[in-house]
Amino acid sequence: MDLLMNLATQAAAAIENLRLFEAMQQATEKAEAANRELEAFAYSVSHDLRAPLRHIDGFLELLKKNLSAVVLDERSQHYMDTISDSSKRMGSLIDDLLSFSRMGRYEMSKRPVDLGALVQESIRELEPETRERTIDWHIADLPTVNGDRAMLRLVLINLISNAVKFTSPRPQADIEIGWRPGRGTETVVFVRDNGVGFDMNYADKLFGVFQRLHRTDEFEGTGIGLANVRRIIQRHGGRVWAEGKVGQGATFYFSLPQSSQEVQ
Amino acid sequence: METLKHILLVEDDPKDIELTLIALSEYNLANKIVIARDGLEALDYLYHRGTFAQRSAGNPVVILLDLKMPRLDGLQVLQQIKADEQMRFVPVVILTSSRESRDLDECYKLGANAYVVKPVRFAEFVQAIKQIGIFWALINEPPPGSATARQP
């Protein structure tokens, strides 16, 4: 009797496993179909929206040239400048939307990544923005983590470039990059700055696509950087969050689920 | 009889045609542009068929080829040109809005000589078109079979 009961239990478990496996297959297929749809959408955005944008810019410039003999009143000039600025802005938004959708489609390859080296590389990449600035860098001895190097590089460049940007009103910027162990085998990395900070009441908007907590005339940007960061870290199985205080700087955190001790 | 050096522009969008001609006009290349409005017209021109049956001999010094056109698209035109013994040395510059890697890969695989993404900003667009025109029509030595005479 016991033997029969054992066999029955094992059979039931096997059937349940098969059912779960099939459910997972279906979910994966659904996700892949959604990915392909997104890819087609992003492709059509890339091509179809850029053409009329190019025409707006082109014919506006030609119009300006044609009118150069005429002395335009200030108002007309202002209207033309606004059209030109808006089409520039539309171009940036399209480019950023495309890069964001690419983040979701790009094939990840997880390897050990030396975060310390990656941070140095990212800071070098930002040299045009830091050249004329007084920045005090405090960089801890960062660990090796598991992840896609190119994607993590983008995360660091985004976070560090934000720190550089939002500390621009400060005579001296203090930017700290450090880490600490998180839950289980997590590694938590942070980028802290003494910049203009943000209102924690709007913290949930920080990582939204095209969401910003500052006006374009206060600080430039489209609001895609942190959305990209979140997308990348989520694909690594980690989390992103931030703390800040208006006028008193901000700290941006991201976690990566495997520490260097476990190499896949 | 020598025939004039010319550029074949394959482009379906009339606004892009207008902007390209304006960009080329500064270096006196505009009167040596032949326009094909889609892939079929392009091939008719290259093979002296249809409306172009009577055109004078000699291949264009470069083909500026858009990718997305109705009916026969740029990739198909590229494929036919590069597969043809008489035609395959004619330089083809892909001129497109698309920056997608799959288009880039396909075009180079089929033997495109260059791939240029049409800049959105007009000043850059003009620069790009001018440089392409100057290089292929004035600086480069065209392959055998091209029309060779320069504008008197």
Top keywords for this entry?
heterodimer, A: 264 residues, alpha+beta, five-stranded mixed beta sheet, two-stranded antiparallel ribbon, 6 helices, B: 152 residues, alpha/beta, 5 helices
Number of strands of chain B: 5
The shape of chain A, in one word, is: extended
Which class best fits the helix and strand makeup of chain B? alpha/beta
**Strand-and-helix sequence of chain B, N→C?**
EHEHEHEHEH
Tell me the overall shape of chain B. globular
SS element count, helices of chain A: 6
Query: Would you count the extended β strands of chain A for me?
Result: 7
Helix content, binned percent of chain B = 25-40%
Oligomer: heterodimer
Mean pLDDT of chain A: 87
What is the SS-derived class of chain A?
alpha+beta
Low-confidence stretches of chain A: 260-264
Tell me the strand percentage band of chain A.
15-25%
**Uncertain spans of chain B:** none
What fraction of residues of chain B sit in β-strands? 5-15%
Largest sheet of chain A: 5 strands, mixed
Largest sheet of chain B: 5 strands, parallel
Widest sheet of chain A: strand order? 2-4-5-7-6
Number of helices of chain B: 5
Mean pLDDT of chain B: 89
Spatial extent as radius of gyration of chain A = 25 Å
Describe the 3D structure.
- The complex is a heterodimer of chains A (264) and B (152).
- Chain A is an alpha+beta fold and 264 residues long.
- Chain A is built from 6 helices and 7 strands.
- The longest helix of chain A is centred in the N-terminal third of the chain and has 65 residues.
- Chain B has 152 residues and is of the alpha/beta class.
- Chain B is 38% helix and 14% strand.
- Chain B is built from 5 helices and 5 strands; from the N terminus they run βαβαβαβαβα.
- A 5-stranded parallel sheet of chain B has the order 2-1-3-4-5, sandwiched between helices.
- In chain B, helix 4 links the parallel strand 4 and strand 5.
- In chain B, helix 1 packs across helix 5 and helix 2 packs parallel to helix 3.
- Chain B is globular.
- Chains A and B meet through helix 1 of A and helix 1 and helix 5 of B.
